[in-house]
Amino acid sequence: IRTIGVLTSGGDAQGMNACIRAVTRSALNKGIRVMGIRKGYNGLLRGDIVEMTAGSVADIIHRGGTILYTARCPEFLEPDNQKRASEMCKVFGIDGLVVIGGDGSFRGAKDVSKFGINVVGIPGTIDLDIACTDYTIGFDSAVNVVMDAISRLRDTSASHERCSVVEVMGRHCGEIALWAGLATGADAIMIPEDKESADFERVVRIILENRARGKNHNIIIVSEGVGGSQELAKRIHEVTGIDSRTTILGHIQRGGRPTALDVKHASMMGVYAVELLAKGETDRVVAYKNGQYVDYDIDEALAMHRDVSMDIWKANVDISTY
Ligand code: ATP
Fold first, then answer.
1. CA 15 to ligand 1 center in whole angstroms
2. Which residues contact 205 (CB under 8 A, 6 or more apart)?
3. What is one Gene Ontology biological process annotated in the Swiss-Prot or TrEMBL record (predicted)?
4. Residue of 37, 86, 105 best suited for mutating to test ligand 1, as the one with most atoms within 8 Å of CB
5. Is 127 a catalytic residue?
6. Cα(250) to centroid of ligand 1, in Å?
7. Per the confidence metrics, is the pTM higher than 0.90?
8. What are 187-246's pLDDT values in tens digits?
9. Quick one: which atom of ligand 1 is closest to the CA of 101?
10. Separation of first and last alpha carbons in the chain
11. From its phi and psi, is residue 279 left (phi > 0), alpha (psi between -120 and 50) or beta?
């Protein structure tokens, strides 16, 4: 491998910059050139590509977002465009590609590799929704943003004896809700993967039981994928008479300084990805599994299935009702 291209694709996540830095610096130290591809696959199709130096990644280790920008690129689903992307790689001398993103981005990488470019994916998404890995870059930072927001909400919610409904990110995956719920002592956690968790009557019952035990406020965490968080607060108020408000944390969860855990994983995975490409490997996804950095074939990784952490949900039920 003579030249590695690096891009970020799909949703942004804290720690992506630290990963770009690790890829760039470790490649340069191996004598490999590095090209930064901007705006995901859009930039690859349009040749929005800049040469990276050790200095281009200075002073970004602590910054959220991605200096390479990120995007969704629907036209990349067309095989003609995948071929064009591989031709653009050749124009810039790129013979190895590191793609930091989610499952969709890995599918795109696999398509580019069909035209002779070596590719490696790195899991970067706040959602923790990639089956092959126990960790995705951005998750810990997002959970910590939620935790910080909820500790603020708890102060005001307790003072007004309110019920706070907090909507967190996760359209298909409840991990942020689960971790943040356990970490903040939520009364209930509602996730899209489990019908019982999202049952309205059950949540009202918990609120009433906890109030009867002397609790003067409540925190209900709703994963985005469950939907109806505004409506939920209204219905809780109608049924129980308890003043209830919804807070949708939204994009705040994606921003800010990455936590130490994210910078660590981002840096280790970036170095690992470059080592794979330097060895001539292709079609691999870097993963963190059982405490070790490993890699899987992209197709094998995409075919894997992982259950949401219901053990966290059950533990929270044990702790939050007493
Ligand atoms: P996130 O977890 O943030 O959603 P993601 O990588 O799964 O990340 P997607 O929007 O699914 O996000 O995919 C990002 C981009 O990858 C798409 O906009 C598209 O350019 C490319 N992509 C997705 N699926 C495919 C596919 N099946 N074939 C080729 N390219 C794809």
1. 19
2. none
3. canonical glycolysis
4. 105
5. yes
6. 21
7. yes
8. 999 999 999 999 999 999 999 999 999 999 999 999 999 999 999 999 999 999 999 999
9. 6
10. 59
11. alpha
**Cβ-based burial of 291 (10 A; exposed 0-12, middle 13-18, buried ≥19):** exposed
Say whether 103 counts as a known binding-site residue.
Answer: yes
Q: Cα dist. 277→5, 92, 99, 104, 270 in Å?
A: 11, 17, 12, 21, 11
Residue of the nearest CA to atom 31 in ligand 1? 108
CA nearest ligand 1 atom 3, residue: 11
Residue type present at position 66? T
- With CA atoms as reference, report the closest residue to 64 among 286, 253, 265, 261: 253
Between the alpha carbon of residue 109 and those of residues 9, 71, 72, 84, 137, the distances in Å are 10, 14, 13, 13, 18
Per DSSP, the three-state class of 170 is coil
And the tokens for 236? Answer: 């809780």
Pair of tokens at residue 249: 């944390």
In which region does residue 258 sit, left (phi positive, over 0), alpha (psi from -120 to 50) or beta (all else)?
Answer: beta
What ipTM, to 2 d.p.? Answer: 0.95
Q: Given the residues 127, 262, 283, 295, select the one marked as catalytic.
A: 127
In DSSP terms, which residues pair with 34 in a beta bridge? Answer: 4
258: its two tokens: 């990455």
Q: Is the CB of 262 under 6 A from ligand 1?
A: no
Interatomic CA distance for residues 218 and 118, integer angstroms: 51
The predicted-structure confidence for 56-107, as pLDDT tens digits, reads as follows 999 999 999 999 999 999 999 999 999 999 999 999 999 999 999 999 999 9
Contact at 8 Å (CB) between 285 and 132?
yes
Q: Is 101 in the pocket of ligand 1 (CB under 6 A)?
A: yes
What type of residue sits at position 282?
T
CA–CA dist 213, 115 (Å, integer): 64
